[in-house]
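To assess whether ligand presence alters the predicted conformation, the chain was also submitted together with iron/sulfur cluster. Input:
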Amino acid sequence: MKKRYFCKRLNETLNFDALKVFYCCATRTGPSIDVPEPKNVKDIIKKRNSIIKMLDKGKIPEECKDCFDLREKENSKPLFLSYFDKMPKANLIIVKHFKQCDCSCIYCCEQYLSKRKIVLKSKKSDYYDLFPIIEELYKQDIIDKKELDVHFQGGNVSVLDEFEPLVDIFIKNGVKRIEIATNGIKYLPKIAQIANKTFVDVNISIDSGSRETFKKIKTVDKFDDVIENLKQYVKLPILLRLKYILVRGVNDNIEELTKYIELMHKIGITNSELMIDQCDNEFISEGEFKIPDYYYDLFKFYKDKCKEYNIQANIWEYIKEILDKGSFFK
Ligand SMILES: C[S@@+](CC[C@H](N)C(=O)[O-])C[C@H]1O[C@@H](n2cnc3c(N)ncnc32)[C@H](O)[C@@H]1O
Ligand code: SF4
Ligand code: SF4
């Protein structure tokens, strides 16, 4: 029986990054293509199909080696035969073709491109305009309209001039779900405008429970602004999540985590995430990212304390896998 491989992410995702379009999500550097001119958007799909076929034939591209999303199946016939009768459509679009931000988190994976410059006014992406590409993807019927999930990452959308037009074109075409990751420093009125039009998931990276720690991590003194905005967002019919990335030596302690959880309780936020800093160089030995022992206590504390307050304590599947293994290859 022939060994064949497949990846669900590859079949679904168009991840628009600054220099390339990737075929999977932000957590790794998977296969990609140079950003095409809008009229050539079909090239993105052609290349993706060739990777799907390659995996189906039992060959693994260099970028997919050791990836825990790769699945193996023994099958005599190709797994994806039916996919090539028609053009496969994208149902997950990730928007991160811009890196400008109105703060500069010390942990931020994207800062090597934005060179830690803080941008206060909306501007164009330094790389390319995404709107004409999305318009063309819709025109050429490459997007699965009914199933489309859009994730805004970046950079911070509060300083992207295309943010509102992009949201509008997705809404006009009946998007199923929009997820917006933001630092929460600037209130985004668009969120209230679309709250009743689709499922809206707003994920705010606050990484602290106090003004002093926020300032150390975000490098701007805007904690109070975030709190005011959270009080507005919590009233909307959206999924509001608060996020905390453990940054070694800054917020990786029980006291700050307690303040963070108590803050959510006070504002009425019922959904939260705890993450590790995946760009922490000090953890890396020979390319391996080692998890310190006390992190396991912090994760346990977080789960127990959230339970006490009826807050959903989310830990991503891939973070669980990293914790189970005790290390992570970058
Ligand atoms: C680069 S940010 C852009 C969106 C928005 N500015 C924000 O901070 O949420 C996208 C996501 O990547 C996460 N992120 C950035 N640097 C990270 C790191 N070193 N480790 C883990 N997650 C990171 C952020 O928390 C955020 O949820
Ligand atoms: S196998 Fe991994 S690296 Fe390859 S496309 Fe899938 S998620 Fe990306
Ligand atoms: S708010 Fe987001 S984009 Fe801005 S520096 Fe922090 S993690 Fe990076």
